[in-house]
Records
---
Amino acid sequence: MKSKMILLMGGQGVGKGTHARRLIARDGYGYVETGAILRALPPESPVAQIMARGELVPDSDLFGVIADAIKNNPGDIILDGFPRTVGQAQWLVKNYADKFDIRVVYMNVPEDIMLARIEKRIREGGGRADDADAAIVRRRLDSFWRITMPAIEWLRTAQGIRFADVDVSAEDVDVNFTRISNALD
Ligand code: ADP
């Protein structure tokens, strides 16, 4: 049987990390958290400077890093924050659909709720530099709509994978988690 690969996709503040951790606690998936992997690179690296500006890291800088992370997590895995471009989505399906049962969960939330959740994350002291600056948050959201939404739309109809569009705009995290769990059944 193929291992499962769950792609958690959605804009900033939709709760990808929160729900990834819940799924992992329950089912024991390996976790590929793209933002955290990239944040672990030295601050003087070109990638760190791109991230500080709120821009997307070029696909060519990412494929090796993601391929290594997938290799280091045998068994069922969750990818959080990857893919984010049509190129990344196509690369993933091309190289991994034969080895994994790929399940996309598009965590669908209106933008005003994303913004409110990012503000809450700042208030509660998450302390991420790229969250604290409103202009950079705006740039990340713009790139979500402009660059990542087309990747989500491409995956919606891609062959050989399964796609779920899940409304996670409820106030109650448990309600959203149940919706995600049901979509993955
Ligand atoms: P957020 O989802 O709030 O933007 P992440 O921690 O997922 O936060 O990502 C932080 C930064 O890392 C992004 O702003 C971007 O610069 C970079 N990054 C993360 N994932 C990707 C990706 N798949 N492609 C390109 N850049 C990425």
---
Amino acid sequence: MAWNPKIEKMPIKELKDMQFKLLKMQVYRLYSFNRFYHDRMRQQGVHPDDIQTLDDVRKLPFMLKQDLRDNYPTGMFTASGDEVVRYHVSSGTTGKPTLVGYTERDLEMWTESLARALTSCGIGRGDVMQVSYGYGLFTGGLGLHYGAERVGATVLPTSTGNTERQIELMMDLGVTAIACTPSYMVYLGEVAERMGVSLKDDTELKVGIMGAEPWSEGTRTHFRDVLGVEAYDIYGTSELSGPLFTECEAQDGIHVWGDMALVEIIDPDTGEACADGEKSELVVTMLQKEALPMMRYRIGDITCLMEDECSCGRTHPRIGRISGRVDDMLIIRGINVFPSQVEHTLMQLPQCTGHFQIIVDRVGALDSMKVKVELTPEVFSDRINDLMAIRKSISNELKKYLNIAADVEFMEPGSLPRYQGKARRVEDRREM
Ligand code: DLL
């Protein structure tokens, strides 16, 4: 079922024509009404009249998160103060925060995007959706809240924390869908087990809307088999509004609504376009955003573009799972390693709980990588198990998948940090 079939399934040619018109209007608007964009375009030697085809988007300058920081708080806004009806703030780990403003129409488009997305994951009237993303300055909670209400679901706005209570409510109210980070889902599963609750057998929970951090197919299988939750990937970033796009029932890529966003995949070194299907850096231009429009925004995420038609019948392009960020891709002894690859490997192994930490260090001139792995209580306490053999098999699996040797250290169940929002899995000691 589609929320807005006329748009979601429109012929590709019409969609591209629509994108071109929206792009042209947006570029004129930015050039005419905002000093930053005007100057950037002039520096690049491009005028709105130069946008003659959709591919001419490539003539436009890129934007980085640093541009938002340099123009903090509202230097890049293209709506006046009284048109802005909401702020969200993205903290980031370094530097100043970034402020995102929304006009009424921006909020409407955000909600429309999520209404289409949630419908494509099978959520609608009759569902009770627990929103366990943080409410507040983070976009996850409020974004999904309004999207779920729009499709007619009953929303339980638990936000993060108080996990036992979340599980009790889930049972009392017959929650059928949950929106949270995949790491919080793992934690919820553990807490439920300690409470003697099987999420699979004792609750109505069926669907999970999981994102805000990288996760893997291994985790999807774990959620399906062990927790009875069919998980769908959701992607977005505060600067583009917040959570915006999800997989559909086909679970073969995340649909990016073409009437809202224009996606490109570029080579981060040359800035040139990559071939369809090639994994590289994602660049997004928001075509209709009013308060904080983003032009060719280099988010720093790595994925691929799929423009072939999806089996669900939606014609809008898809992006693949985000495998990591350009800036948290680890390069260890010359080999690119993404934390999501480690997660994928560990989630296939029944001895692991899914909690892990990667420590990268330099011994002399050589990089070293250690993976701290939490074992399940059964394996950890069972003396009959040969821990040496398990360590060897995990090391072998990691080596096979990552192409690099990693030292494996076993951790007691429950000893690694738990995260209610995004997990921080990597400690890179090489720069310290
Ligand atoms: O994380 C918005 C969001 C909320 C998305 C809830 C999904 C669900 P930021 O805090 O600005 O916004 O962080 C954005 O998180 O650039 C990616 O690096 C990462 N990220 C978001 N979704 C995914 C995902 C929200 N599905 C940054 N897979 C992005 C992998 C993701 N990484």
---
Amino acid sequence: MRNLNQHTITKAVIERLADTQDERLKEIMTSLVQHLHAFAREVELTEDEWFKGIQYLTATGQMCDDKRQEFILLSDVLGLSMLTVAMNNDKPAGCTEATVFGPFHVDGAPHYADGDDVANGAAGIPCRVRGTVKGLNGEPVAGAVIEVWQADAQGNYDVQYPGLDEPQARGVLKSGPDGRFHFRTIVAEAYPIPSDGTVGELLRATGRHPWRPAHLHFMIKAPRYETLVTHVFRKGDQYLDSDAVFGVRESLVGDWLAQPDGSYTLDFDFVLNPGK
Ligand code: BEZ
Ligand code: FE
């Protein structure tokens, strides 16, 4: 095929995909080419702009290593991560909603017993978290594996401190026979997502702030139920309506209550979706 022009090239590229063995790959690539070409036409992309885009993606890739995933962060601030979560976690009414996983989960977090302090020295205001893991009919889910992780009072996760060699403000617990769990930690505070890379550059260029409202991450696993990846957000946080990664859902907002001794409590129940 020769003499392709701006009106005929899209069809030619799509036809070139005809021999793709994997049907799903063919569907995805066909749609990607269509949308990519439509985008270039819509904005009347110049050659300079095309090259700036290539340079931006190259720099984004160069920021990635085993501790930093700038492409996921880019997907997060463009709302693609949350869109994918929302499309793939359409649960029955009454189930706890899912939200983004985020980059700060670490495999192999320490295991704790009911009532233990998962802060393990992390700076912050002491806080007790209590709740029940239930199924959709209100049945308690015993022995659910509950992973929690959060930032400290400075808005940093333990993995963001280069010299720190033990996990802080993260841990794994199990719900009791009645589905209840209870642990001590520190109060979650709002924090900015990493903005010293290409994602930060994009946020500044588009007049956006990098803040996430205060939240506590949970991942809850139990046999015969779908794994739940979610957060509990802190009621009253100033960033609830402008989360940098679009992860807030009203049903996930919890009330951290101040106690007379200066500590806080959070009570929050989780409802798991029965497995498919
Ligand atoms: C987080 O909540 O840990 C997070 C999520 C998306 C991007 C950056 C941080
Ligand atoms: Fe987080």
